[in-house]
């Protein structure tokens, strides 16, 4: 069991803060960064791809909520897989989460860099990782307070984009109709890429050891966060697609900013870009929290160095895990490619949720876990070939390491 040898993490988060942290992960840079690649894959079928991603996310969230209520510990599906399916599957989930979300962290950090200072994007990304790792070191309550401000800012910017594009621009509802460019493979690939933007509700589960009344709070917070994110994403996608069309959206490097400019509000574009940078910071903050907690859980079980299981006696944070994750993410952000990071992250995280659904299947009420498991595997292997090949290789590397350790 992932139980601490020394001080335990402190239960400080209520429902509101848990929802905010989940929203900070979802209503973040994903909606600013993933719409373009998804539109390139799905064409005018973008909204169908978004619906597919939302259905799979709902199944995953439902399975995660049921499991988190039963196992309110740090680690998320690492703990659920271990307890319900066996140590190997728990390890595989934890490994997939850590490597996938490390790529997500790098993608979010680079998004900050490209919006703030494109010429020095990698340097800005590294600086952002260092700053947020330092904040997390001093305890989750400070992180939750900052996340509230970030979520409020991002929701305000997204609402303004929707109002300007649909209310004052040249939005064409004809752009929402299906064209000849729609294919099943393209829609599924778009769903896999857009899933990158939905996966933040896992942060609530991985923080299970720091939530008050977890059996009640975690399922409620996951449902609320996912519902709000889905409404926001759907509104933003409709507004941008109606304004730019699928072809314009596919070629856009900053879709929401370009939609505002196309609507005749070029003066508001810097605000949108600033909002995107703030959103990416919010996602990065929550991602580092989630990866460090899974690292803590795996270190407690000696799948990672035991020194990473330490909890700071004053701040109640897994401070060594925070520092280790920050160092690795900063190194990846210094050299990574943004779109490649999104594809690889989506594959690894879909493997993680496939194991979550398989774990939930053992609890009964099996329809949703079956749909979620099938959806995760279908979306994972519909991603671009490079993402699938690299993802399979990295997951296989983790399996090899596990068996070598066991032997």
Distinctive features:
mainly alpha, 17 helices, 75% helix, 0% strand
Overview of the structural elements:
The chain has 407 residues and is an all-alpha fold. Helix 7 packs across helix 13 and helix 12 packs antiparallel against helix 13.
Beta-strand residue percentage: under 5%
Number of helices: 17
Return residue spans where pLDDT drops below 50 for at least 5 consecutive residues.
Answer: 1-6
Radius of gyration: 20 Å
Question: What is the rounded distance between the termini?
Answer: 21 Å
**How does the helix and strand content classify structurally?**
mainly alpha
Largest sheet: none
In percent, how helical is the residue content? over 70%
- Could you spell the SSE succession in H and E letters? HHHHHHHHHHHHHHHHH
Question: What topology does this entry show?
Answer:
Blueprint: H1 15-26, H2 29-33, H3 35-42, H4 46-70, H5 77-84, H6 87-116, H7 121-137, H8 140-167, H9 184-198, H10 202-206, H11 214-251, H12 255-262, H13 269-300, H14 319-333, H15 338-361, H16 367-380, H17 385-406
């Amino acid at each position: 069991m992932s139980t601490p040898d020394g001080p335990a993490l402190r239960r400080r988060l209520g429902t509101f803060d848990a929802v905010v942290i989940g929203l900070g992960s979802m209503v973040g840079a994903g909606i600013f960064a993933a719409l373009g690649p998804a539109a390139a894959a799905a064409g005018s079928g973008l909204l169908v791809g978004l619906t597919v991603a939302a259905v799979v996310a709902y199944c995953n969230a439902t399975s995660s909520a049921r499991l988190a209520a039963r196992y309110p510990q740090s680690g998320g599906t690492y703990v659920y897989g271990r307890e319900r399916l066996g140590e190997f599957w728990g390890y595989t989930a934890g490994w997939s989460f850590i490597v996938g979300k490390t790529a997500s962290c790098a993608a979010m950090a680079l998004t900050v860099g490209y919006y703030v200072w494109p010429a020095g994007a990698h340097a800005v990304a590294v600086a952002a990782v260092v700053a947020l790792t330092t904040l997390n070191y001093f305890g989750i309550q400070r992180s939750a307070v900052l996340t509230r401000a970030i979520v409020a800012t991002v929701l305000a910017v997204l609402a303004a984009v929707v109002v300007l594009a649909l209310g004052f621009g040249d939005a064409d509802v004809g752009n929402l109709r299906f064209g000849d460019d729609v294919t099943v493979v393209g829609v599924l690939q778009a769903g896999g890429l857009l899933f990158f933007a939905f996966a933040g509700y896992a942060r609530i589960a991985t923080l299970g050891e720091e939530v008050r009344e977890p059996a009640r709070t975690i399922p409620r917070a996951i449902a609320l966060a996912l519902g709000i994110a889905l409404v926001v994403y759907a509104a933003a996608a409709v507004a941008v697609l109606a304004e730019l069309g699928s072809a314009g959206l596919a070629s856009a490097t900053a879709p929401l900013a370009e939609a505002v400019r196309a609507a005749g509000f070029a003066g508001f574009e810097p605000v949108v870009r600033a909002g995107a940078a703030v959103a990416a910071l919010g996602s990065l903050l929550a991602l580092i929290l989630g990866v460090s907690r899974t690292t803590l859980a795996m270190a407690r079980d000696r799948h990672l160095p035991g020194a990473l299981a330490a909890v700071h006696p004053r701040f109640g944070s897994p401070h060594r895990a925070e520092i280790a994750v920050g160092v690795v993410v900063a190194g990846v952000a210094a050299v990574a490619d943004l779109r490649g990071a999104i594809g690889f992250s989506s594959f690894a995280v879909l493997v993680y949720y496939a194991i979550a659904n398989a774990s939930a299947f053992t609890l009964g009420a099996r329809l949703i876990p079956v749909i979620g498991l099938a959806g995760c595997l279908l979306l994972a292997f519909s991603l671009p070939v490079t993402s699938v090949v690299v993802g399979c290789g990295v997951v296989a590397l983790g399996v090899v390491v596990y068996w070598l350790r066991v032997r």
